[in-house]
Amino acid sequence: MSEQGRRRRHRTVDRVVWILEAAARAPGGVTVAELARTVEAPASSVQDLVNGLVATGFLLEQHRRFRLGPAPHVLNLIAGRVVPRISQAELDELSRVAGTPVLLTVRVGLDAVYLARGGEDEIPRLVPLADQHMARPLLRTAAGRLLLAFTDEVERRGLLDELSRNDPEAVAEFRCALPAIRASRISRSEGLADPEVSALAIPVTDGPVVTGALALMHRRRGRSERLRLDRAAARLLAHIQEKQT
C-alpha cells in the first residue's frame, strides 16, 4: 500500500482532538488539570497544546477554564458543506414520512457520529447516542457502513487498513458487501452494534457528494422489521426526490 493510502494515528493529533472534544462537551469549560487526566499526558505538555489552541482561536480561556472557540465554526463556513444541513423541522418531517425515528449521521475519522434525530425513538437507551453525539464504530452501524462505502477510494483503503488491525472479520465482511451498498445506496445493520436493533441507512447528498447519512431504526424482531425498514426507506427516498424536483 502506498504512503498516501496509509492512515496512522498520531499521538499529538489525538491529544489535540481529545482536548477540543472535552472542551466542547463542557459548557463551563475545563481546566488544564482536567484535560491532562483526559488525555493521560503531563500537564506541562497539555498546557503547551492549550496555549497553541487558544492562540489560533480553537479554544477560549476564561478564569483559567477553556471552552471551544470560534475557529472550528469558521472552518465550516469556509468549507461551505462540511456537514449536511437539515433543520430539526425537516428531520421531524422525514421521520413522519418514514414512520420511524431518523438519525442524521456523519463520519468522523473511524467513527460514525449522530448529529441530530427526528421523531420519537422507540428504543430509549439509544436517545443519548444522538443527543450527546456519541461516536459509534463505522463498521458496526448501518450509517457508518454507508458513509465508508462512499468515502473516496484511496481514503477508504487507508481506513480499512486501520480498521483491520482490530476487527479483520468486520473488514472482510464489509469488503464483500461494498459493491451492493454502492449499487443500491442503502446499507443495513442487523444487530451489529446492538443485538436488539435493526437499522437501515440512506445517503444525504450535496450534488453528487455524499455528505452524511440518514439512519432508520427499529427493534429487531425478525424479517418483518427488515421489510418495514425497506418500506420506510422507499417512502423517504421518494419524498426526498420529490422535494428536490
UniProtKB/TrEMBL annotation:
The record's section on InterPro entries has: GAF-like_dom_sf, HTH_MetabolicPath_Reg, Tscrpt_reg_IclR_C, Tscrpt_reg_IclR_N, WH-like_DNA-bd_sf, WH_DNA-bd_sf
- Which is an annotated Pfam family here? IclR_C
User: Can the keyword Ribosomal protein be found in this entry's annotation?
Assistant: no
Name the SUPFAM superfamilies on file: GAF domain-like, Winged helix' DNA-binding domain
- Highest taxon, organism lineage: Bacteria
Presence of the UniProt keyword Transcription regulation in the record = yes
Which BP terms in the Gene Ontology apply to this protein? negative regulation of DNA-templated transcription
Arranged from A to Z, the UniProt key words for this protein are: DNA-binding, Transcription, Transcription regulation
- Where do the IclR-ED domain residues begin and end? 64-245
Instruction: Name it.
Output: IclR family transcriptional regulator
Please spell out the taxonomic lineage of the organism that makes this protein.
Answer: Bacteria, Bacillati, Actinomycetota, Actinomycetes, Kitasatosporales
Which GO MF terms does the UniProt record name?
Answer: DNA binding; DNA-binding transcription factor activity
Q: Which residues form the HTH iclR-type domain?
A: 10-70
